[in-house]
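In this supplementary section we document a worked example of the pipeline. Step one takes a protein sequence of length 313 as its only input; no multiple sequence alignment statistics are reported here. Step two produces a three-dimensional model, which step three serialises into structure tokens for compact storage. The input and output of this example are shown verbatim.
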Amino acid sequence: MNKLSVNHLLGIKDLIKDDIELIFNTADNFKEIINRPIKKVPSLRDITICNLFFENSTRTKLSFELAEKRLSADIINFSSSSSSVSKGETLIDTVNNILSMKVDMLVMRHPNAGAAAFLSKNVNATIINAGDGAHEHPTQALLDAYSIKEKLGTLKDKNILIVGDILHSRVALSNIFCLQKLGANVKVCGPSTLLPKYISSLQVETETDLNKALQWCDVAMMLRIQLERQQIKYFPSLREYSMLYGLTLQKVKKLNKEILIMHPGPINRGVEITSDVADSKHSIILNQVENGVAIRMAVLYLLAGKTKPTATL
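The serialised model returned by step three reads:
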């Protein structure tokens, strides 16, 4: 298979295993390119991409922008705080105005779940979801799975633990879908108040004891507490959360095996993970950031090839 089965990247749920493997194989090529002295290729020279970010972002926005520049695309960056959205303009009107300037692809982050899917049905452009509320964050899950595969060789039958605020995390949901499609076993760990009721319907085990969960896993993915999405208190204090669910070097050293440690960022050091763990030999956090550019290049390139088949590697 050399084409994606989808015309947009709205969520991992919409992808088949062949799509994920095609993205990984394409990312391998781009990773080799971005490690050359000349890191740019003319693959998307005739494509114009708009980055629409209605929520704050550092890593994802920079990663997409760098991926687009490495592919020689023309780029427009949109910030909702300085746009007519703040004057009451609708999402569709905003996007249609942008598209009238002959924009081909949209990379969108939005605080509302389903915003990217809604847009894909109502405008004529290729949509890439860079995170929609607490729903999905597909490119993060792809780069996470790619980073694990790079270190362990395969995801099949590997035990992947996701720890933290599962209830509010789009990263957790996308990762569950992606890892399961690639044959991994997934378990989530956190306070029971931060484990969603629907989790059992996804064939995912839950654990409230971090030490037990760490003994089970090959990979521990630590998530931050998303205080900006929480309307009520889900646990007594950050100090108590950190004592029970924070990953420390002491907890890692107690294990009778090596595990990989991941974090999608931003890291709250001293809460979900201590600095000595985040910066340790077990951590592949910076690999995730590096792989993010290659994965996003692959996604942009493959989707552009469906709309403009002239796109070349």
